[in-house]
Write a structure and sequence with these properties.
The complex is a heterodimer of chains A (209) and B (287). With 209 residues, chain A is mainly α. Chain A has 10 helices and no strands. In chain A, helix 3 runs antiparallel to helix 5, helix 7 packs antiparallel against helix 10 and helix 8 packs antiparallel against helix 9. By secondary structure, chain B is α+β, with helices and mostly antiparallel strands. Helices cover 30% and strands 32% of the residues of chain B. The chains are: A mainly alpha (209), B alpha+beta (287).
C-alpha cells in the first residue's frame, strides 16, 4: 500500500505542529515546580486557601499536553490502515489522559476559575462534555461502530483543541480591543470551545448528507 | 599740655560712643533679618516650566525648592525634582520687602544651572538657566508657593482622564472621510479607568479578586500613588506624568521605602505581582 502524504495532511501537520509547540513551550514554563510561576501568579488566593489546588493544577499542566499528541496521528487514515496498533495505542493514551487526568483536573480548576460564575460554568461544562464524548468514542470503537467512533472522537478532539483556540482568541481580542483582562477572559472561556464544537457538528452533518 | 590731654580724652570718649552706637545698630539689623529670613526658609513648591522656543511638547515638572539656611547673605538650598536632588547655594540680596536670590547648582552635571528668583508677598518667582547652553531645555521659569510636606493617607488623584502619554502604539487606520478613503496613523494610548481616583491604595487593602480585572496602567497608577503620597520624587517620566500636575504632590525624596505603612507594603507587593503578570501575559498566547 502506498503511503501518501497529501498536501492537506502536510499543511495540517505543520499548522498543528506549530500550535502544539506553543503549548509545549507553555508546559515547560512550569518546570521546575513553583507556587508562583506564570498563571499561578494571579491564583495565589486558591494556592494558599485550597489545599488540593496546586497538585491538581500541576496534574493538569503536566498531563494535558499528552492529549494533544493525538492530533498528529489519529486522523491519518493511512496510519490507521497500516499501523492499526499504533492508532489504538495512541488512542488509549488519549482516552486515559482525558478521562482520568486532564478533564477531571480541568473541571476542578474550572470550579475555581477566574472571571466569575460565567467562566466557571463554561470550563466545568467543557470538562464534562470532553469526558462524555471521549468515553462514547471509546465505547463505539469497542463495539466496532467506527463511523460513530470517528464522530465522537472529532467532538472530543475539538474540545481538546480549546486549549489552543482559547489562547488564539485571547491574542486576537486583546490586539483588536485592548479590553480589561477578566472581560476578555469571560469571552474566551466560551469562545474557546463552543465554535470548535459547532464547526465539528456542521462537518459531521455535512458528511452525512 | 592740659588742654591736649582733655581734648584727646574727650575725642576718645566720643569715638567710643560712636563705635557703641554703630555696634548697636548692626546688631538690630541682624535681628530683623533673621526674623524675615524664617519666612523665606522652607519648601517652595510649584511647576518648573520650559521656556524655550520649540514645537515639541515639553511637560512641566513639579519642583520642590527647599531653602534650608540663610546666614548673612549666604544661602544654602536644595532642589528636588524628577528623581534628582541637587544641593544649591548662593547669595541673597534684600531690598525692602523683596528678597532676591542667585543660587548655583554644583556644575558637575550636564543639566546644572543657575536659579535666579525673588520672593515677595509670599510668592517665589524666577527662572533657571543651564550652564550648558547647548542642551535642549536650557531655560525654565517658575512661580512657587510655600508648602510644608505632610503625609496624608487620604490624598487622592483628581478626577481626570488618565492615559499614558509616553507609551503609545501607532495604529494604521483606514477611514472614509467625505466619501474618500483615507489612510493615516493614529496613536493608541494606554488609559486608566476611574478606579485610580476612586479607590485609595494607601487605606484600602486589596484582594486578588479586586485586581484581576484591572489594566496594567491602573495597577501602576494605584501603586505609584502610594509613593506619591509619601513625596517620592519619580525618576521615570512615565510615572511622573500622573503626579507632577497634581496640586498636593510635593517631591521630597528619592526613596521613601522606610516611610511606607504595612498596609501600603502589602498593597505594593500585590500590585507589583499583578503588574508583572500583565506584562508577561496580557497580550501573549499564554494564559
Amino acid at each position: 500500500m502506498q503511503r501518501k502524504l497529501s498536501y492537506f495532511r502536510l499543511a495540517w501537520l505543520i499548522f498543528y505542529g506549530f500550535f502544539f509547540f506553543l503549548m509545549l513551550e507553555l508546559t515547560l514554563k512550569y518546570i521546575p515546580f513553583s507556587n508562583t510561576v506564570s498563571f499561578l501568579a494571579i491564583k495565589q488566593t486558591e494556592v494558599t486557601t485550597v489545599r488540593s489546588y496546586l497538585p491538581i493544577f500541576y496534574l493538569h499542566v503536566y498531563t494535558a499536553i499528552f492529549c494533544l499528541l493525538a492530533g498528529f496521528t489519529q486522523f491519518s487514515s493511512s496510519l490507521l490502515a497500516n499501523y492499526k496498533k499504533v492508532h489504538r495505542a495512541i488512542g488509549y493514551i488519549y482516552v486515559i489522559s482525558v478521562v482520568c487526568l486532564s478533564a477531571p483536573s480541568g473541571i476542578f480548576m474550572g470550579y475555581h476559575a477566574n472571571g466569575g460564575v460565567f467562566s466557571k460554568i463554561s470550563f466545568v461544562l467543557l470538562g464534562i462534555l470532553w469526558i462524555f464524548f471521549t468515553v462514547k468514542a471509546l465505547i463505539t470503537a469497542k463495539q466496532g461502530k467506527f463511523k460513530l467512533h470517528r464522530q465522537f472522537m472529532s467532538r472530543s478532539f475539538a474540545l481538546a483543541c480549546s486549549a489552543i483556540t482559547l489562547r488564539l482568541w485571547k491574542v486576537i481580542l486583546v490586539y483588536l480591543f485592548h479590553p480589561s483582562p477578566m472581560d476578555v477572559y469571560q469571552l474566551i472561556a466560551w469562545l474557546g470551545w463552543v465554535p470548535n464544537l459547532l464547526l465539528v457538528e456542521y462537518l459531521i452533518r455535512k458528511k452525512q448528507t | 599740655m592740659k588742654k591736649f590731654y582733655i581734648l584727646t580724652f574727650l575725642s576718645l570718649i566720643l569715638a567710643s560712643c560712636h563705635e557703641k552706637a554703630k555696634v548697636q545698630t548692626v546688631k538690630e539689623e541682624m535681628v530683623t533679618t533673621t526674623a524675615d529670613d524664617l519666612k523665606l526658609i522652607g519648601s517652595w513648591v510649584g511647576s518648573f516650566n520650559a521656556d524655550v522656543k520649540t514645537e515639541d511638547y515639553i511637560p512641566n515638572i513639579k519642583i520642590n525648592l527647599i531653602i534650608k539656611n540663610i546666614e548673612g547673605d549666604s544661602v544654602s538650598a536644595q532642589s528636588v525634582l524628577a528623581g534628582n536632588s541637587r544641593v544649591i547655594s548662593g547669595k541673597i540680596i534684600r531690598t525692602g520687602q523683596i528678597a532676591k536670590f542667585e543660587l548655583f547648582e554644583p556644575g558637575n552635571d550636564k543639566y546644572d544651572g543657575k536659579f535666579t528668583f525673588e520672593i515677595a508677598n509670599g510668592t517665589l518667582k524666577g527662572f533657571w538657566e543651564a550652564f550648558d547652553k547647548t542642551i535642549k531645555v536650557n531655560r525654565r521659569v517658575f512661580t512657587l508657593t510655600k508648602k510644608a510636606f505632610v503625609y496624608n493617607a487620604d490624598l487622592m488623584l483628581p478626577e481626570n482622564d488618565y492615559y499614558d502619554e509616553y507609551n503609545s502604539k501607532i495604529e494604521k487606520v483606514i477611514d472614509t472621510i467625505d466619501g474618500k478613503e483615507e489612510k493615516y496613523d493614529q496613536a493608541q494610548y494606554r488609559y486608566a479607568d476611574e478606579i485610580v481616583y476612586k479607590v485609595n491604595s494607601s487605606t484600602h487593602a486589596f484582594t486578588e479578586d479586586e485586581l484581576k480585572n484591572l489594566k496594567k496602567l491602573e495597577l501602576e497608577i494605584l501603586r505609584n500613588t502610594i509613593y506619591a503620597r509619601h513625596g517620592l520624587s519619580f525618576k521615570k517620566k512615565g510615572f511622573r506624568q500622573f503626579f507632577d500636575y497634581v496640586d498636593w504632590y510635593i517631591p521630597v525624596s528619592g526613596n521613601v521605602d522606610d516611610q511606607l505603612t504595612s498596609l501600603e507594603r502589602a498593597n505594593i507587593k500585590l500590585l507589583s505581582r499583578f503588574e508583572q503578570y500583565a506584562t508577561d501575559s496580557y497580550d501573549t498566547f499564554g494564559r
